[in-house]
Amino acid sequence: MPSRTVRGVAAAAGPPAAAAVIGNAFVSRDSLRWFQALRRPRMQLPLPAFLVVGAVYYAQLGWVLHRAQQTEDRGGRNRALLVLAGNELGNAAFFGRRSPRAGFLGVLAFLVPLLALQKSVASDRPSLIALTPYSLWVIGYDVPWTYRLWRLNPRPSR
């Protein structure tokens, strides 16, 4: 029988790791070529910076899951899992459909579970500190970036 510590680590790190692996399965080499061929907004970061943001995001969600387990907050855990799933579905829509419009609409839809999670962690200072930078990133960068990307590339390309 696994120890409580091993179960805790698996509960916190497992879902973000699984989301990262599953989410990257939707991003083929062809999808990356498509992405790199798009007209880019001036504000677009280089691809390595997106990878760093992604790694930090998964760590932040792992911390929120860890705190939810420590505080026995099932609602917070479920919302964090929904955020992980929503993020991967948004990426699948963007890369799978090769549609900047789907990416923009996906980010807007993603705000619903993200802001619900943000609200639910408001009373847990460590989770609040971990999640707030990502929520601000999505609102301050992802929303305007995906909007500009869509407007510069209004038609899906295959």
Distinct helical segment count: 6
Beta strand count: 0
Helix content: over 70%
pLDDT average, as an integer? 92
Query: Which consecutive residue ranges, at least 5 long each, have pLDDT under 50?
Result: none
Q: What name is given to the CATH topology?
A: Ferritin
CATH class: Mainly Alpha
The assigned CATH architecture is Up-down Bundle
Largest sheet: none
Q: How would you spell out the order of helices and strands?
A: HHHHHH
Integer-rounded radius of gyration: 16 Å
What is the CATH superfamily label? TspO/MBR protein
Distance between the termini: 49 Å
Specify the overall morphology.
globular
Strand coverage percent: under 5%
Tally of structural domains: 1
Which class do the helix and strand fractions yield? mainly alpha
What this model shows, in words?
This protein has 158 residues and is an all-alpha fold. The protein has one domain (4-152): Ferritin, CATH 1.20.1260. The protein is 81% helix and 0% strand. It contains 6 helices and no strands. α3 packs antiparallel against α6 and α5 (100-120) runs antiparallel to α6 (125-152). It is globular, with a radius of gyration of 16 Å. The mean pLDDT is 92.
